[in-house]
Amino acid sequence: MDLRFFTAWTLGALALVALVSYLIGSVSFAVIVSRVGAQDDVRRHGSGNAGMTNILRNYGKKMAALTAIGDFGKGVVAVALGRLLFPLLAGEAAALVDAGYVAGFFVILGHLFPLYFGFRGGKGVLTGLGVLLMLDPVVFAILLVLLLPVVFLVRIVSLASVLGYALFPVFTVVVNWLRGDPFLFKLCFAVCIAAIGIFMHRSNIRRLLNGTEYRFGQKKDAPRQGENQQ
């Protein structure tokens, strides 16, 4: 990567992509759906997180579906917009870096710490899936094939989420190396996405180690140990 192309103008273009993506991520569909659909705030209930799983547990499938579409969709939109906006501003440097990775990290950051809703968001799994699909469909497909069996065998969504975050940088390197594409820039942001995703699941990891993590399908009257995964 030729660092001579990273001028103040180019860095400014990346900063703009980051800002726009963060603002998109800050649109918390869980909060909006709960306020419009139930005149309530989902963060007052259950795990306290603004995500699809908490919506599902407290308001049902229809509102959860709307939240899922919104959270997944904003990841898709942010990466697509970042890749469209950056070449218009950066000129030659646009051929050297994939601004989608910058957009992906910051839209997830916005979901986790939404500007419009007191910086209290969800855990970013659905938004992260939308980001991953747009960043690299091959890596997305590999992780899906590997982790879906984990979800249905052990019935612990957080385990698949943590494994997915951990494997994302690994397969980013492998897939791009096999293609013959440069991957250093992509790897840096893939590691950032993985690190913040795993950090946000730290309480889930503790419960996984203790054997007390929530399994989907648990009876509602059973003691619930898990938290929202989205």
Number of helices: 10
Shape: globular
Structural class given helices, strands, pairing? mainly alpha
Query: What portion of residues belong to β-strands?
Result: under 5%
Distance between the termini: 35 Å
Radius of gyration: 18 Å
Descriptive tags:
disordered C terminus; mainly alpha; 230 residues; single chain
Structure report:
- The chain has 230 residues and is an all-alpha fold.
- Helix content is 69%, strand content 0%.
- It has 10 helices and no strands.
- It has helices at 8-25, 29-38, 52-59, 61-90, 99-112, 125-135, 137-154, 157-179, 184-200, 202-210.
- Helix 5 packs parallel to helix 9 (184-200).
- The two termini are 35 Å apart.
Q: What's this, in brief?
A:
Helices cover 69% and strands 0% of the residues. It is mainly alpha-helical and 230 residues long.
List the helices and strands and how they pair.
Elements: H1 8-25, H2 29-38, H3 52-59, H4 61-90, H5 99-112, H6 125-135, H7 137-154, H8 157-179, H9 184-200, H10 202-210
